[in-house]
Design goal:
Elements lengths: L2 E7 L2 E8 L6 E6 L9 H9 L5 E7 L1 H4 L8 H15 L6 E6 L1 H13 L3 E5 L14 H5 L5 E6 L16 E4 L16 H18 L2
Parallel strand pairs: 3-4, 3-5, 5-6, 6-7, 7-8
Antiparallel strand pairs: 1-2, 2-4
Helix pairs in contact: 1-6, 3-4
């Protein structure tokens, strides 16, 4: 079952697509990155698998995406949109895990403590711009202030797993790029790459209580 609702925020109209669990214990709210939408392969895989593990998934489309714009606004505006969506995410009365991919992961980290997130799921966290490791965004990740799981492609140009700060709870998707695509010549196929993501997040979510 899929349910979709629109939410008015100070940054414009957002959209939430719900994939409810039969007996939910958590809500995982995940937003997209700056270059795509909730059709991303990892977000769709999580929405398909996690409800079977007691996790209701809320796929969140930021206002700029709903409005049809192709370029994401400044980080502060993304945060405004996420804040406006948050009250709807908590309506089921369950703990909410704040998540996202790429730019959405940054938003989740920046706002986690303020919004009372139970934990953060950071998919393809953009640790730095490609080729610019000196422009590190590690402070955003380390400042999340709640249990945080990073899922990162082994060949992500925005930060490979070994570049992350020591102590980061991180799952590597071998050969994966920023969108978790794996080359045809890789030892694992695309289906297995997505299984690594869904298995890891399902196991992690079970540890959150």
């Amino acid at each position: 079952m899929t349910l979709t609702e629109t939410v008015e925020t100070d940054a414009g109209t957002a959209r939430v697509t719900w994939r409810p669990a039969e007996k939910p214990r958590l809500v995982l709210a995940v937003s997209h990155g700056a270059g795509g939408g909730v059709e991303a392969r990892d977000l769709q895989a999580l929405a398909g698998v996690l409800p079977g593990h007691g996790v209701t998934v809320a796929l969140v489309e930021q206002p700029w995406r709903v409005a049809g714009r192709k370029v994401a606004p400044a980080p502060k505006t993304l945060d405004v949109g996420w804040r406006g969506i948050w009250p709807v995410l908590g309506k089921p009365g369950l703990p909410v895990v704040s998540g996202g991919r790429s730019a959405g992961a940054r938003v989740a980290c920046r706002t986690a403590v303020e919004l009372g997130a139970h934990a953060v799921l950071a998919l393809s966290f953009p640790l730095h711009p490609p080729g610019r490791p000196e422009k590190s965004r590690a402070d955003e990740l380390l400042g999340a202030g709640v249990p945080t799981l990073v899922v990162q492609g082994g060949n992500d140009p925005f930060g490979k797993p070994e570049e992350f700060p020591e102590g980061t709870d991180i799952v590597e998707v071998p050969y994966g790029d920023h969108g978790f695509a794996v080359p045809k010549r890789a030892e694992i196929g695309q289906e297995r790459a997505l299984e690594i993501i869904t298995d890891a997040v399902a196991e992690w979510s079970s540890s959150l209580g």
